[in-house]
Design goal:
five-stranded mixed β-sheet, about 30% strand, globular
């Protein structure tokens, strides 16, 4: 029976035609795998399967995912994250890949976990730290996976000598939309995405200003755990809602109901922007 394997042109360009053809012929594809996104079993002989190439500084690893979870794509990660993914994937779920031809490592900064379900600050050039919290947000009767981002200090515009806070204006210029209430899900912001791989949160990606592969806007120093409910909602919607607010707007909320109250209050005060970000590559 032929294998229902998808190898995108992007992946083919990295691994070469010979390896891509061998995969499609079944020569080096797994008989079964654990999906690199939802971590449930998959079978390329029974269901359409995507090849996902993770590229680090020096190595590349080819993993497999249900096509309903992720498309075939190339994902750039740090070498540390890649090695961690290899240990997590294990077995037949990942295969050694040919050396990447165009690998460029995403930059990351040391991070310290904060006491939320998911939080790992990323040091920005302005020395502000982004706190990232995950949670499920109820909108129009349906639960959506969300990431809430709030810096620990004002974020100045790059090159600015002033002391103002340009965090929201900078995001609005990128396509995020201000909201005054959370009554409807926001529109998709194409070009941005959330990297959820091996059942963990790795990064929020943004378009590369120089073209080519997306780059990390925020990146976890280590892959971060999310709840099963959050991951299930992300795979259902194939997107994550990102909410962002200036420093001091939301604060550290210990429960999802309190986080929602803080989001509603921040939106009503005109200090919240949002967008729906596809899972990486969609």
């Amino acid at each position: 029976m032929p294998r229902m394997l998808d190898v995108s042109n992007e992946v083919r360009a990295e691994i070469g035609d010979e390896e891509a053809d061998r995969l499609l012929a079944g020569g080096s594809a797994p008989g079964g795998y654990d999906c690199t996104s939802c971590r449930t079993p998959g079978d390329p002989e029974q269901e359409r399967t995507s090849t996902v190439l993770f590229i680090g500084d020096e190595t590349a690893v080819l993993a497999f995912a249900h096509s309903t979870c992720l498309p075939s794509q190339v994902v750039q990660v740090t070498e540390e994250q890649l090695q961690g993914a290899v240990r997590s994937i294990g077995g037949d779920a990942a295969a050694p890949a040919a050396p990447a031809q165009n690998a460029q490592a995403a930059q990351t900064a040391p991070a310290q976990a904060a006491p939320h379900q998911v939080a790992a600050p990323h040091v920005m050039p302005e020395q502000a730290v982004l706190g990232v919290t995950s949670g499920l947000v109820l909108i129009a009767g349906e639960l959506h996976p969300a990431l809430v981002v709030e810096p620990t200090a004002p974020v100045a515009r790059p090159g600015s000598l002033g002391s103002g806070d340009d965090f929201l204006p900078l995001l609005i210029e990128q396509g995020f939309m201000p909201v005054t209430e959370l009554s409807t899900a926001p529109s998709v912001l194409h070009g941005w995405s959330v990297l959820l791989a091996v059942g963990q949160l790795h990064a929020v990606l943004q378009p590369n200003p120089n073209g080519g592969q997306p780059v990390a806007w925020w990146q976890a120093h280590q892959p971060l755990q999310v709840t099963e409910g959050w991951r299930a909602a992300a795979n259902k919607h194939q997107q994550v809602l990102l909410f962002a607010a200036p420093v001091g707007s939301i604060g550290r909320q210990p429960r999802e109901d309190l986080l929602r109250d803080a989001l509603d209050r921040t939106a009503a005060n005109g200090r919240l922007v949002t967008a729906a970000l596809p899972l990486a590559g969609l």
